[in-house]
Amino acid sequence: EYYNEVLNAYEALAEEKPDIYWPKAAKLSSDFGDTLRQNGLNQASIQYLKKAAEVYQRLAATDPDWSPNLSLVYDNLAEISYGVESFDQALFYNKKKLSETNMENWRSELAYNLFALGQTSTALRDNDSARIYYFEALYLSLISADKEPKTWFPIAAQTFHALGDIDKLQENQESAYENFEQALFIYKELSTYDSSAWVSDVQHNLKHLYDLEMQKKDYEAAKKHAEEIVRLNRILASQNPGEWLSVQAGFLQDLGALNYQNNNPLAAKKYLSEAVQIYQQLSDQNPENNLPYLANAFNALGAVYFGLEQTDSAFFCLEHSIAMLQKAIPENL
Q: How far apart are CA 330 and CA 327, in angstroms?
């Protein structure tokens, strides 16, 4: 009620002093709508955001400096629509946002808007339209990257990655590989400016390349990328062990299997032993989720020891694998 009273007052005053009070009315509607959105009151939020959009649209028609404000309102409306899986509405607001963007003054905003349209089209399973939007965003980012790499490289990298996701979904492995490789190259370049900010993005694209190489049975290339992923996972796990320790253990186990397959049992033993240690730590914290993984890692390590003819160690690992599996079975079965 308080906001409505103030808003009505601003709108009344705007009849006499529009240059002062219409911007105040628009900002109040936008801020209150955003507050409602953040508190999950989406329907009420839409009412105020639409009012803010209407006013900002009038303001931007005579002064393009208001375009970013209008774009932000459309962005919030699109986010609400996206959150409730009303992708048609999200697409509508993203297109409105795009139409209000001034090409010369807000080129980076235009690129982000095109990228958002690509994401929304992907959610609508309209991959052909998504490609068009992504390519337009990519064009804008690449022609501007030489002058402002810190601004434009992130957009280009995200777009290459998004195109790779579409290719992977459509089982176009060669094109997917090329797009993930381009994204990886750019994220590594960004890491030269701030290594800690882009480690997870580098890791993520390496993971896509690794998956595609495993599908193609290019095990040598997969092993090299897995080694790089393990190195990055150590950094990420030191920063956020809750999220990355289990990821690291999984890749250590994969790397152990690749080395064993490549007739390098000593390297396999090293990686699998570390995987066992991590899964043991995770199982102590959360046995229900991690005991089966620990059992599997013990089993793989036992197979390596058999290959090395270290039978005592092999039996030790296999006995522990069985014991972990028995612990993992619910008591009521």
A: 8
